[in-house]
Every structure is written in C-alpha cells, then in structure tokens.
Amino acid sequence: MKKLTCKNVGVECDGVFEADTEDEVIKLAAEHAAAAHNLPKIPPYLEKKCRDFIKGIRDGEANETV
C-alpha cells in the first residue's frame, strides 16, 4: 500500500489517500484537490512533491507527516 496526506505536502487538511500504487494515490489526491481545494489540475511541481512523500505502508508502521 501507498499513502499520502494533504499535510505531507503542507496543506492544513485531514485528507488521506491510500492505494496499491503511486499512480492510484495521485489520482485520488487529484480528485480531492479539485473538490476540496479548488485545484482542478495538480501542477507538475506539486505532483512531484506528492510523489516524493508517498510512502509504502507496512503493518504497524506509523506514517508520519513531514
């Protein structure tokens, strides 16, 4: 599993996105960004930042925000 939160990329929001692949996480985050943050398309620099923060989830691992 992969995981990303809005807080990982510096947005004060409780959005959490989990999926099997990095691309699926980005898709979920993009849908959320459009609906919740009035960002119809994630700019390339922000997508890169998101991808940099996506982490694999292991049983019992704490997924800290940065």
From TrEMBL:
InterPro entries found in the cross-reference section: DUF1059
Domain of life assignment: Bacteria
Pfam family, one: DUF1059
Protein name: DUF1059 domain-containing protein
Source species of the chain: Candidatus Nomurabacteria bacterium CG1_02_47_685
